[in-house]
Design brief:
about 70% helix; 2 strands; two-stranded antiparallel ribbon
Amino acid sequence: MSFASTSCLATAFALAVAFVGAPAGAEVIGGNPGPAYNYICPDADGQPALDCYFDAVGHLYTMCKHVKSIEIIEFGYENATEGTHGAKSDSCVVKQKQNMAKPYQAALRAAAISKQAADAVRSLQDYWIVALSDLGWHPGESDEDYKTRTMVPYEKFKDRIAGIKEIMAIVTARTTPAPAAPKAREKAKH
Protein backbone atom coordinates (compact mmCIF):
# COMPACT_ATOMS: atom_id res chain seq x y z
CA MET A 1 0.00 0.00 0.00
CA SER A 2 1.39 3.41 -0.94
CA PHE A 3 1.88 6.34 1.43
CA ALA A 4 -0.92 8.27 -0.35
CA SER A 5 -3.36 5.38 0.15
CA THR A 6 -2.40 5.04 3.81
CA SER A 7 -2.77 8.78 4.32
CA CYS A 8 -6.23 8.79 2.70
CA LEU A 9 -7.35 5.83 4.82
CA ALA A 10 -6.08 7.50 7.99
CA THR A 11 -7.92 10.71 7.14
CA ALA A 12 -11.13 8.84 6.34
CA PHE A 13 -10.86 6.92 9.62
CA ALA A 14 -10.28 10.12 11.62
CA LEU A 15 -13.33 11.76 10.03
CA ALA A 16 -15.47 8.69 10.67
CA VAL A 17 -14.45 8.64 14.34
CA ALA A 18 -15.17 12.37 14.67
CA PHE A 19 -18.66 12.03 13.22
CA VAL A 20 -19.57 8.79 15.00
CA GLY A 21 -18.47 10.25 18.34
CA ALA A 22 -20.77 13.27 18.00
CA PRO A 23 -24.03 13.03 19.94
CA ALA A 24 -27.19 12.90 17.82
CA GLY A 25 -28.24 16.38 16.73
CA ALA A 26 -24.94 17.98 17.79
CA GLU A 27 -23.39 20.54 15.51
CA VAL A 28 -19.90 19.56 14.36
CA ILE A 29 -17.45 22.45 14.42
CA GLY A 30 -13.91 21.86 13.22
CA GLY A 31 -14.46 18.12 13.52
CA ASN A 32 -15.56 18.41 17.16
CA PRO A 33 -19.13 18.32 18.39
CA GLY A 34 -20.07 21.79 19.58
CA PRO A 35 -23.02 23.31 21.38
CA ALA A 36 -26.09 24.25 19.39
CA TYR A 37 -25.52 27.95 20.07
CA ASN A 38 -21.75 27.72 19.93
CA TYR A 39 -21.09 31.26 18.79
CA ILE A 40 -24.02 33.32 20.04
CA CYS A 41 -24.59 32.04 23.57
CA PRO A 42 -21.89 29.44 24.28
CA ASP A 43 -22.43 29.28 28.04
CA ALA A 44 -26.20 28.82 27.79
CA ASP A 45 -26.43 26.01 25.26
CA GLY A 46 -29.78 24.25 25.58
CA GLN A 47 -31.00 26.74 28.19
CA PRO A 48 -34.24 28.77 27.99
CA ALA A 49 -34.44 31.74 25.61
CA LEU A 50 -33.78 34.39 28.26
CA ASP A 51 -30.63 32.60 29.45
CA CYS A 52 -29.31 32.41 25.88
CA TYR A 53 -30.04 36.10 25.33
CA PHE A 54 -28.40 37.12 28.61
CA ASP A 55 -25.29 35.09 27.72
CA ALA A 56 -25.22 36.58 24.21
CA VAL A 57 -25.31 40.16 25.52
CA GLY A 58 -21.92 39.92 27.19
CA HIS A 59 -20.41 37.43 24.78
CA LEU A 60 -21.15 39.34 21.57
CA TYR A 61 -20.08 42.63 23.16
CA THR A 62 -16.78 40.93 24.04
CA MET A 63 -16.31 39.75 20.45
CA CYS A 64 -16.49 43.32 19.11
CA LYS A 65 -14.42 44.63 22.02
CA HIS A 66 -11.66 42.18 21.00
CA VAL A 67 -11.87 43.24 17.36
CA LYS A 68 -11.60 46.91 18.37
CA SER A 69 -8.63 46.05 20.63
CA ILE A 70 -6.85 44.41 17.70
CA GLU A 71 -7.37 47.54 15.59
CA ILE A 72 -6.00 49.69 18.41
CA ILE A 73 -2.98 47.42 18.87
CA GLU A 74 -2.35 47.39 15.13
CA PHE A 75 -2.85 51.10 14.36
CA GLY A 76 -2.80 52.92 17.72
CA TYR A 77 -5.65 54.80 19.37
CA GLU A 78 -5.53 57.89 17.14
CA ASN A 79 -5.37 55.91 13.88
CA ALA A 80 -7.64 52.98 14.73
CA THR A 81 -10.53 54.37 12.71
CA GLU A 82 -8.58 56.28 10.07
CA GLY A 83 -9.44 55.25 6.52
CA THR A 84 -10.45 51.61 6.48
CA HIS A 85 -8.74 50.74 9.79
CA GLY A 86 -12.06 50.56 11.65
CA ALA A 87 -13.81 48.43 9.03
CA LYS A 88 -13.39 45.19 10.98
CA SER A 89 -14.99 46.55 14.15
CA ASP A 90 -17.75 48.26 12.14
CA SER A 91 -18.43 44.93 10.44
CA CYS A 92 -18.39 43.18 13.81
CA VAL A 93 -21.10 45.50 15.16
CA VAL A 94 -23.31 44.83 12.13
CA LYS A 95 -22.72 41.07 12.37
CA GLN A 96 -23.44 40.89 16.10
CA LYS A 97 -26.67 42.87 15.71
CA GLN A 98 -27.72 40.28 13.12
CA ASN A 99 -26.61 37.40 15.38
CA MET A 100 -28.58 38.87 18.26
CA ALA A 101 -31.86 39.19 16.33
CA LYS A 102 -33.20 35.67 17.02
CA PRO A 103 -32.11 35.43 20.68
CA TYR A 104 -33.57 38.90 21.31
CA GLN A 105 -36.94 38.01 19.74
CA ALA A 106 -37.04 34.73 21.69
CA ALA A 107 -36.21 36.61 24.91
CA LEU A 108 -39.01 39.09 24.24
CA ARG A 109 -41.47 36.22 23.78
CA ALA A 110 -40.29 34.63 27.05
CA ALA A 111 -40.56 37.96 28.90
CA ALA A 112 -44.02 38.68 27.49
CA ILE A 113 -45.63 37.34 30.68
CA SER A 114 -44.82 40.75 32.17
CA LYS A 115 -44.90 44.15 30.49
CA GLN A 116 -42.22 45.32 32.91
CA ALA A 117 -39.97 42.36 32.05
CA ALA A 118 -40.48 42.83 28.29
CA ASP A 119 -39.72 46.56 28.63
CA ALA A 120 -36.59 45.73 30.62
CA VAL A 121 -35.42 43.33 27.88
CA ARG A 122 -35.99 46.07 25.29
CA SER A 123 -34.04 48.51 27.45
CA LEU A 124 -31.17 46.04 27.82
CA GLN A 125 -31.11 45.56 24.04
CA ASP A 126 -31.03 49.32 23.48
CA TYR A 127 -28.18 49.71 25.97
CA TRP A 128 -26.28 46.80 24.37
CA ILE A 129 -26.49 48.49 20.96
CA VAL A 130 -25.26 51.79 22.42
CA ALA A 131 -22.37 50.00 24.19
CA LEU A 132 -21.37 48.25 20.95
CA SER A 133 -21.45 51.52 19.07
CA ASP A 134 -19.31 53.24 21.71
CA LEU A 135 -16.34 50.84 21.63
CA GLY A 136 -14.20 53.32 19.73
CA TRP A 137 -11.58 55.48 21.40
CA HIS A 138 -12.61 59.04 22.29
CA PRO A 139 -10.02 61.70 21.39
CA GLY A 140 -7.97 62.71 24.43
CA GLU A 141 -8.89 59.56 26.35
CA SER A 142 -5.99 57.86 28.13
CA ASP A 143 -5.31 54.15 27.74
CA GLU A 144 -6.57 53.53 31.28
CA ASP A 145 -9.70 55.66 30.75
CA TYR A 146 -10.50 53.80 27.53
CA LYS A 147 -10.10 50.39 29.13
CA THR A 148 -12.18 51.41 32.15
CA ARG A 149 -14.97 52.89 30.00
CA THR A 150 -15.25 49.81 27.82
CA MET A 151 -15.51 47.56 30.89
CA VAL A 152 -18.42 49.53 32.44
CA PRO A 153 -21.06 47.90 30.19
CA TYR A 154 -20.36 44.48 31.72
CA GLU A 155 -21.46 45.72 35.13
CA LYS A 156 -24.52 47.43 33.65
CA PHE A 157 -25.42 44.30 31.68
CA LYS A 158 -25.13 42.26 34.88
CA ASP A 159 -27.33 44.69 36.87
CA ARG A 160 -30.01 44.87 34.18
CA ILE A 161 -30.05 41.10 33.74
CA ALA A 162 -30.41 40.62 37.52
CA GLY A 163 -33.38 43.01 37.46
CA ILE A 164 -35.07 41.13 34.63
CA LYS A 165 -34.51 37.80 36.39
CA GLU A 166 -36.03 39.23 39.57
CA ILE A 167 -39.10 40.50 37.70
CA MET A 168 -39.53 37.14 35.98
CA ALA A 169 -39.18 35.23 39.26
CA ILE A 170 -41.81 37.38 40.97
CA VAL A 171 -44.26 37.16 38.06
CA THR A 172 -43.74 33.42 37.66
CA ALA A 173 -44.24 32.79 41.39
CA ARG A 174 -47.42 34.87 41.52
CA THR A 175 -49.02 33.72 38.29
CA THR A 176 -51.06 30.61 37.80
CA PRO A 177 -51.24 29.20 34.28
CA ALA A 178 -54.44 29.88 32.37
CA PRO A 179 -56.77 26.91 32.12
CA ALA A 180 -56.39 24.82 29.00
CA ALA A 181 -58.65 25.68 26.10
CA PRO A 182 -61.49 23.21 25.40
CA LYS A 183 -59.72 21.69 22.36
CA ALA A 184 -56.54 21.19 24.38
CA ARG A 185 -58.50 19.43 27.14
CA GLU A 186 -60.07 17.13 24.56
CA LYS A 187 -56.67 16.21 23.13
CA ALA A 188 -55.31 15.59 26.63
CA LYS A 189 -58.10 13.09 27.32
CA HIS A 190 -57.25 10.99 24.25
